[in-house]
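Methods — Computational structure assignment.
A single polypeptide chain was analysed. Its primary sequence is given first, followed by the predicted tertiary structure written as structure tokens.
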Amino acid sequence: MTKWRNAFRTSEELHRFKRYAVLREATRIISRRGFHNTSLDEIAEGLGISKGTLYNYVSDKQEILFDCHMIALDLGDQASKVANDLDGSGLDKLRLLLLCYIEWMYGEAGIGGITSDINALRPDDRTTVVARRDKIDQALLDLINLGIRDGSLVADDPHLAVFVIMGAVNSISSWYSRGGRLKIDEIADVIVGMLTRSIAFDTSNTKVRVEVPPHPEATLTFAPMASARTGRVATAKKAGSPKAKPAGASRKKSL
């Protein structure tokens, strides 16, 4: 704990770091059992903490689900920025965006696993997520159209290309295992290679390995919570008293 405290400027930063760790591990538990089949008690047990301690970081499963969607969208935005900063063709930028997103989402620091379950979100949260997701789809569409203009990509229907690409990427959560035969960077190389070869003008250009930046966890961890959720939580706190922690909760490790 001393090492952690010395690594952060404020207690708020430390709390956000721990909260991100809780969200990351909670998604892995939920992805194994399913969102509707997992209780907060099971999440707390899987984390090795009491349910009362868990309430220090999240109020309910819906908050976990929504925040994980928002983190995934933050990763998509960051991957888009990294790709657009690259001096290269539309194909080069598309490959880098997809490699970043897959490795960041499903790597050791990632939160991949439950973001495909959009219908389980609260209606207001779903509206927020869909609006942001549409912007990322547009970023992909822009890169494909750029590739068509510069001659590196060919696509009869760029919109369908986006749907196919994101369908494949989002399906990773349904079968990927961290203890499996391939590491996530190897999986990303294969999947992105298959996807880009299907629309590349010159398929030999899809085999060149590009350097993926480190997971931007620190930026995500210390960033303020999404305004949509912050406003909702603030309103809820004004309307009633904070949720009481269950009495008699077992003593487990603290975070």
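Note: The chain has one domain: 2-239.
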